[in-house]
Amino acid sequence: MTMKIEVTAIERMFQQLETEFGKEEIATLRRASDLWEERHPNGSDAEWAKKMVLEAISYIAEDETYWTYVAARIYLNEVYKNEEEQRDTDVYADFARHVERLVEKGLYTPVLLEKYSKEELRTFGQLIVPERDKLFTYIGLKTFMDRYVAVDFDKRPVELPQERWLIIALTLMQDETEKREEKVAEAYWAMSNLYMTVATPTLSNAGKPHGQLSSCFIDTVDDSLQGIYDSNTDIANLSKYGGGIGVYMGKIRSRGSAIRGFKGASSGVLPWIKQLNNTAVSVDQLGQRQGAIAVYLDAWHKDILTFLDLKLNNGDERMRAHDIFTGICLPDIYMEQVDARGEWHLFDPHEVREVMGFSLEDFYDEKRGEGSFREKYEACVNHPELSRTTIPAIELMKRILRSQLETGVPFMFYRDEVNRANANKHEGMIYSSNLCSEIAQNQSATQFESVTLEDDIVVTRSKPGDFVVCNLSSINLGRAVPADVLERLIKIQVRMLDNVIDLNKIPVVQAARTNARYRGIGLGTFGWHHLLALENIHWESDEAVDYADQLYEKIAYFTIMASMELAQEKGAYPLFEGSDWQTGDYFDRKGYDSKAWRELRIDVATNGMRNGYLMAVAPNSSTSVIAGSTASIDPVFKPFYHEEKKDYKLPVVAPDLDHNTYDVYRRSAYIVDQRWSVKQNAARQRHIDQAISFNLYVPNTIRASVLLDLHLQAWKSGMKTTYYTRSTATDIEECEWCHS
What is the sign of the dihedral through the CA atoms of 598, 600, 603 and 607? Predict the structure, then answer.
């Protein structure tokens, strides 16, 4: 009897699928499910039936892309059924009641009911388009339901996909004073159509009682015991609420440096990095994953050789910190010395301050080939009283390449290029990047001043530094560009990002201060390879390079215009005066000289900019999965492969893979010539005011000289950073470029 009911339920499901995908296609699934049932004859309940159909899909050819949508429909039916049982009503039936119910349970913030009346919530509920749930692939929907929707205290989902999009829109637009309903509708339109995604903290935390909304933070550690421990506390607090942290430690004295005049007393940066490593492991992100911290150090710092070995899998474990990520800050003069096979000198930053009267890290070369940093560096080299370690520059680079091929890091941060391109150089210096190497904003160390007892309260006074905060979201190029919605999309996207700044409750006061001073945002993209496939543009081609140049100039134009218009409405960021935005130097440096750009330049000088930093391309691997596209600006791993997790194994197919797009997708990440990837990214970087999370994909058999040439090409072409060097042990017969 039970079996008969389940067969009927499955038949209803097949009939529903046939209306969407066609009888011939679903006939294949019917045959596959019959085969699966023959092999597993003893099941009868609903869970067995669902598993039968989902696993039957794995018998079908992986290059049939629509099967992921078939699986998504089956899973969506289960999601709806569970929600209907919990709510005792149809799904999406009463949005206002849904909000009230979750606020009562402590799963939504009460602010939603304070900012919006019940009648307004009913009206907003009418914006929901349930059909847009069908835009998800199976793995996208599963990722969304497993990781991002609101859950109860037993971690069961209590929210549907369209409700999550609308709650984010309501959260980000809650304090808009004019045309709020229209702005909520635009934000919902942008997200629910998968034209864009917000960053993981916003996606996960908006509308919930706990957690902040920003993605990235960068701290600069002062060279003092108090500064080091205060920084660790700040990092722990941010990690607790889901932030990824970049930490610049280049100001800390090296091993063997003096402390209060006692020579040889300092243990260098290593103990403090190990302490950060423990913080990353101990303070997890909302119980979901351990903290993520990247530490940056200068190529001229005396501890750099020890630093480069931190993540290696062999050697003295007391000298290792396996759970942090590393980045190296590289001046032009070092790369020149590598290219020329010259000498390189390592210094102690504390001794440089004491002997030379300046901090070497506070300078950069204002022009390629000349500038303040090389003048100060050469002054240090020529000073007879300043101790140093002298090595061939290429030997340090060999250590970098060895670490990258074994561990994927260090990330490369080309500090002179970053600071030359800094639109806010009138207010500070950029020392390093963040966890994912796409943020480049002014930094400075917070300096402890005093602790006093006032009215029986301990009061700590510090001079706040610039503790970088960045708020991210990304355009889905594979959907937004073909739909021709970039201008409309970017306008609402910039507003959403700007509102995050005012809504955020950052638990570090100097970070909140920096956020308010610069109002930095990071509008990025994903789905680049997806878009190339749709346009039939091959990765290894001048056409792809030219397309990157044209498309990202267009994105930059719309983004700058949106921030300018927002400044006209709400006021410019406090440090706008004197910036390259205000003087026009930003537009000169980029070579923007068309009539449209000249007009925009005048508008910016007149009205200001709402945001001091605008664009940054993040890795966004999770959110690109949700949106059913390809990650960031990366090539696909393979046209089709299996995604293996703890509790499932699924075929994954490149988006819109068919006989038209296969030729663009077929040369996967480890096969495409990375020199073309660098060319594309250099073209793209010209239009991005911050940086780009750019991965290099290489076999671990790559010749060192070829990997070195890639880094030299990246530096010479004006790229600001490179992210992971991702190597694989798999034999790649087609990889010819990597042996050239």
Answer: negative
